[in-house]
Amino acid sequence: MTVALYARRKQWPLKSVTVRLSHRRVHAVDCDACDTKVGMLDRIELEIELHGSLDGDQRARLFEIAGKCPMHRTLTSEIDIRSRLA
């Protein structure tokens, strides 16, 4: 949604966006880019397909914008869940 709104505001020829996600658990020691090295981590692989007559610069910018959407920022930030029984 964030990507589509940005493209519409810029009047770029984006027709649609397809997002594919996959999730798996991986050993932390196998993740070179991760701070945590103990236990298991959740790995989400994201593929974004942009449909429309976009040039390379537009595609790169929309991919960058996708990384700034609220959902992406939530998933990549530290999460503190506090549960209680009501």
- Low-pLDDT windows of residues: none
Mean pLDDT: 90
Structural class based on helices, strands and sheet pairing: alpha+beta
Proportion in β-strands: 25-35%
Number of strands: 2
Q: Spatial order of the strands in the main sheet?
A: 1-2
Query: Globular, elongated, flat, extended or rod-shaped: what is the shape?
Result: elongated
Determine the number of helices (DSSP H or I, runs of at least 4 residues): 3
SSE order: HEEHH
Helix content: 25-40%
Q: What is this entry, summarized?
A:
By secondary structure, the protein is of the alpha+beta class.
Describe the protein in words.
By secondary structure, the protein is an alpha+beta fold. It has one domain. It contains three helices and two strands; from the N terminus they run αββαα. The chain has helices spanning 2-10, 56-66, 70-76, and strands at 14-27, 40-52. Helix 1 packs antiparallel against helix 2 (56-66). The mean pLDDT is 90.
